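Quick one, T. Sequence first:
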Amino acid sequence: MDVTEAIAHLGPMFEAIAADGRQALEQLRLPAGAEVLDVGTGVGNFAVFLALQGFDVLTGEPETDTTRYARKDWATRASAAGVADRVRFEPFDASRMPFADARFAAVFFFGVLHHVDAADRERVFAEALRVVKPGGGVVFFEPTQETLAQIWTNDPDHPLPADPSACAGGAKVRETKLRGRRMDIYVYQPA
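Structure tokens:
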């Protein structure tokens, strides 16, 4: 199945997520079949998008996360898109990732950083840089003001977007900021 077919099965939100995801992937130019990490599974849309691009995706969220965005049925979406064999779920805490150094070609946080406690964000950023391969990248997607206004209609307590740049903690990275359809996209590559 390709992204166009997946949009027919998964809906217009998936289309917007795929459009923003494509922008990030154009910046990274990852090798085909690379292993990538999707932090914050939710309903699985971003993991499905990455798998449709030919990547092997490890996705996860903390076992202790009981928010309205966690513990969703991502597996059904992955099956519907025909990529269940390319997506694997493993619970983990993004501030203490149980992964080897330089394991992933890229690490993605689609709408996640603003849900992380402000005191933990610098550690989460550092962990993402630790587990990404040289030449890879860490990508944060944070909601635009327009997207946030839409979210607030159903979730009035939803937090404001986070600024990933404020979480870099002096790391030597090259930042590229892009304006997506629904998200501001921050791409960090080790300098």
